[in-house]
Amino acid sequence: MATRASSGTEVDTSGTVHNVTDVGTKRPYERMTEELQGMARLSQSMGGADEMAAMSADKMLEATDLEGILAAGESGSLNSADMVGKRFDLTEIDWAPSAEQFKAPFGVMGWFHYVDRTTGEEGIFASGAGNIVAAGRAMEKANLLPVENLTIKGRPTGNGTLYWLSK
Predict the structure, then answer these.
(1) What is the pLDDT of residues 44-92, one digit of tens each?
(2) Residue 73: helix, strand or coil by DSSP?
(3) Who wins on pLDDT, 39 or 42?
């Protein structure tokens, strides 16, 4: 059995001192990032960015005419920008690894399942936006899903558009 020597170290039964990451000293952001990355690795059901490309390719290959093939090329998942100003109920979230060019800030993206409040249609939008990912994970951890009548807001910044969930 290991004995805690001091904050950040522990001593095993042979007397060897090991560095230890104490969960109590990690920021909530660091714990959430580790949780999301673990969940994304385990949950390959949605497949991440590669799955979006595969779904479009499936539609193209299943099309029987030129119009169907070309229309499938325009298909794909909605994203945060597509959802700005739309009212929806958030029903569940799946996590997947981000595409390489979108690794920041967490290295994961969420597939946000929703019901459109105007049409009643079910859909999924993908987002790796930090504030949306963090809010979604916080809602999951607090067992708040489903959440009714949300929207996404956004504003331009010097580094692109900042997106967040809002009531």
Answers:
(1) 555 555 666 777 788 888 989 999 888 887 777 789 999 999 999 999 9
(2) coil
(3) 39
Say if CB 44 and CB 111 are below 8 A apart. no
Cα–Cα distance measured from residue 133 to residue 135, given in angstroms and rounded to the nearest whole number: 6
Q: Which residues of 19-39 are buried (b: 16+ CB within 10 A; e: fewer)?
A: eeeeeeeeeeeeebbebbbeb
Find the range with the poorest average confidence among 1-10, 68-77, 145-154: 1-10
Task: State whether residue 145 is helix, strand or coil.
Answer: coil
d(CA 69, CA 92) in angstroms, rounded, equals: 31
Rounded to whole angstroms, the Cα distance separating 149 from 131 reads 18
What's residue 143's pLDDT? 96
β-bridge pairing 88-97 and 78-79: unpaired
Instruction: Give the burial class of 106: count Cβ atoms within 10 A of its Cβ; 0-12 exposed, 13-18 middle, 19 or more buried.
Output: buried
Q: Which amino acid is at 11?
A: V
The residues, ordered by sequence, that sit 6+ positions from 20 with a Cβ below 8 Å of its Cβ are 4, 8, 9, 10
For the chain, the C-alpha Rg in angstroms (whole number) is 20
CA diameter of the chain: 72
Residue showing tokens 């109920």: 89
Whole-model pTM?
0.69
